[in-house]
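Lab notebook, bench 4. The sequencing result for the construct came back, and we need a structural model before the next group meeting so we can plan mutations. Quick request posted to the team channel:

Model the 3D structure of this chain.
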Amino acid sequence: MHQQTLLNQLREVTGTTDVQLLQQALQVSNGDLAEAVAFLTEKNAKVPQQDDTAYYQTSQVASDRYISVGSQADTNVIDLTGDDKDDLQRAIALSLEESSRAFRETGITDEEQAISRVLEASIAENKASLKRTHTEVWSDSLNPHDRKRIDTCPVGLKNVGNTCWFSAVIQSLFNLLEFQRLVLHYSPPARVHDLPRNQKEHRNLPFMQELRILFSLMVGSKRKYVDPSRAVEILKDAFKSSESQQQDVSEFTHKLLDWLEDAFQMKAEEDREGETPKNPMVELFYGRFLAVGVLEGKKFENTEMFGQYPLQVNGFKDLHECLEAAMIEGEIESLHSAENAARSGQEHWFTELPPVLTFELSRFEFNQALGRPEKIHNKLEFPSMLYMDRYMDRNRDVTRIKREEIRRLKEHLTLLQQRLERYLSYGSGPKRFPLADVLQYAMEFASSKPVCTSPVEDIDSSAPPGGTTGQPLSQPSTAEQDPLPPLESSGPASLPTTAATAAQQQRVPIHKPFTQSRLPPDLPMHPAPRHITDEELRVLEGCLHRWRSEVENDTRDLQGSINRIHRTIELMYSDKSMMQVPYRLHAVLVHEGQANAGHYWAYIYDPHQRCWMKYNDISVTKSSWEELVRDSFGGYRNASAYCLMYINDKKPFLIEEEFDKETGQILSGMDKLPPDLKQHVRGDNELFDKEVQEWDALQIRKAQQEKLALVAAAAAAAAAAAGATPAASSTSPSSSSPQPMSIESSPPDNTVAQQEPEYMEQPSPTNDSKHLQEDTERAISRAAAEQEGRSPEALLNAAIKLEYARLLRFAQEDTPPEKDYRLQHVIVYLIQNQAPKKILERTLLTQFADRNLAFDERCKSIMSVARAKLDLIKPEEVNMDEYEMWHQAYQNFRETTILMMTGLELFQKTNYTEALMHLIYSYQYNKELLSKGQYRGHDDELLGHYRRECLLKVNEQAAAMFESGEEPEVTTGIGIMNDLVVPCIPLLLIHDAERDLLAVEDMRNRWCSYLGQEMEPNLQEKLTDFLPKLLDCSAEIKSFHDPPKLPTYSTLELSERFSRVMASVGRVPSNGR
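Done. Here's the predicted structure in token form:
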């Protein structure tokens, strides 16, 4: 074990990945690390490092409990490219000395310091988030109902600042019910109340207590998500560092299991009673493998323990290929044969697999040329059920036989593929073609009939370009009799020839020589042999036909053999004897982004619901295997699996619920918790219930105050109207549009019951009121002309029918987008949305009861009758709540229209940042309107298109500011992203529309591309801090800016302005971008 630790430290210091070379250095130096470093640096100075070390990198398997895998935490880079070997050795020796001294003084390893850096960053981010206002993206919703857990839905974890890695790992472990039970029922050693003996106890025991509390809240909380800050604080306090960096999932998981192991080890040692203590963490997560190998002709064999098993991704297509490469290092033949004894290599064979088998997929590699890590986006497939039999020590002999057979088959496969390639890519030049097609083309050429003795003789050199070239080629007999047909002038008769020539230039139909032996009459000329006899053609046709059939048969045979070998290799381990160690996929930890920044989430299988769940910080949603594959295999966007957690399918206790020993019932919810945790969760739930109650009481008080304010306003308006003269009434304010409800009417007896919607009380320009008055008076005049001498009530009924018929025609008319009659009259809106008849009648009565109508006796009498009818309407006849609801819906439609219209105007003026808020809110409001009816809103595709385009424009402007490198510009650009773009991204992701997803991906790629560029440290810091927010894939709608203030428009102004804007934007482009 000590040797493996030295190997890992030596690999990290020198950057050498050749296992054999590292072992040789330790052997030469007798275990002295400094001498081993000197040996390697001297060797590297003489022999340039080869590029194919990736072969050995695939097998860095050792005591993973003591290996920091994939750590790139140290940002101090020493330039080792110089020729001064003494300086190089001094630098490495100094590094070793500092590292060793730091460990001796503090007991903290470099890996722990790396984790400390990210925890510092996380807590700092969390503290900063507490200072933000409620309009920013990362704050909680003020409404506790938005944060309330729905039934037994799993509880999410709040991202307290670059801690999505924490959430992904904790959720994966929490959903291992055996692990959950171990943590919940953990009790600290009895001596915990004494002064801790060492730093580990001082760190691990408080963390275990916070983890228990966190798990208990995840079990029984009434909250939709809980805050893990206290657990993160404990981790942060355990280290000493001031640098910051986003944490790596595998490093955190590895260290977390170490801490848990230490905590359980203390308890196990206290309870052992003379026996060897059993650590449940070790039994759950750690296994053993046997390393069998040959080093310079000497055989060796030793057993080592492992936790997370690291696998290289680069160069492999699936998980089994990764495992096969990781299990073999060097020349496999020398391991079990007497020949080639001087070769070196080793095999790994699992002797004991843990119940929870974790694979760490190495998707980062260090780019030596650029001096920074890069992410590997290659596609890597993995199964939902993994059979580990072929890697077990007990199956060593069988596996070796099968591996040898697979090796032989692959060699044969390579030969067959090379032969097939010669058939499919035939030729000696840069362009290659399938041989069967070459023979086909030769047959086409041989069977073509020449139309002239020279390819240029039938072209008139004096004819202008694009002119006709003579007699149409659809008359081969004439061409045969006269090789040089007479030229014709350009004219109507020549048009078919010109068209045929143009068609030929686009695509000439392929002539099939085996079904049609002569040139068809209507085919334009193509190259043909000058002289060929019928006998020559017959012999050539026979040869080419036979050769082509032979080639096609050979190709089919080769493809069939290749497919059979692939199938044989796939089924090599499918017999029952090699399917006895099944491991089922439990969790997949996904990373999206680049090497320096990104976002983590987890897919976890729920065996009770038999579905996959997606745990994305506070958002927990049902998912599918298809979505998991899309996000986890890689090769799609920037997302890929980073860690795979499999569980032994023959050990159901890992995911089985606990049963009550007395009743035999399944324990769930609070019943799963021990008494101390149960009390803590109850206390937290009581606090949350109190918060909900206070919120509800506050909303009731607000509603009552608003209602009282409305009543008071209505009473004041009634009093003012009662004391006003007709002249004063004609100048009284009216609403913002001439819809019926906006016309001021005399106060009814029941003021509250007949109170008009709030939006009707807004003042409107005089021309707006006049516009509606003219419509009303026109209807009255037409009714009077048709009903001369009738009573005022009959005239009112006739006028209402005429006005309704006019508006009904508008409602039924098929109009272009720029002409929307709904904006001109509320009745059109009500008709199109099938409002009840009583609502329409009252709205029309209100229109004719307007006191601002002309003051001739006819209008006065009709107005009086209309007002009397309004007063006679009983509450049970027209539901005023429903009436107000319909008019409020119309007001919402108008407001959405104003937001949309203003946003489109600003977009056309390239004022994208201001336009964005209008388009975002108009889209959301419009979506809500359309959910209640097709004609309640506007074209959602058009709004979605301009919302998306505006967001891309804002992102482009912010990126340009960042690229400038100027501090004020950079700060403004990042501010725009944080305040505008980042909060909008969940709105685009929530409906999973393809064009919106592509737009989000475009924006993310733009910012991720900066990671590979040289920039000032302050810019790098800003980018690293900002990117995780941009890459957060959560579709959770965060708190947002207040909606823009709306201007007031008359109905006429609104209609005309809307018409101009819609006519200028037109329809959505077909590609939607």
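The first strand starts at residue 156 and ends at 157.
Will bring this to the meeting.
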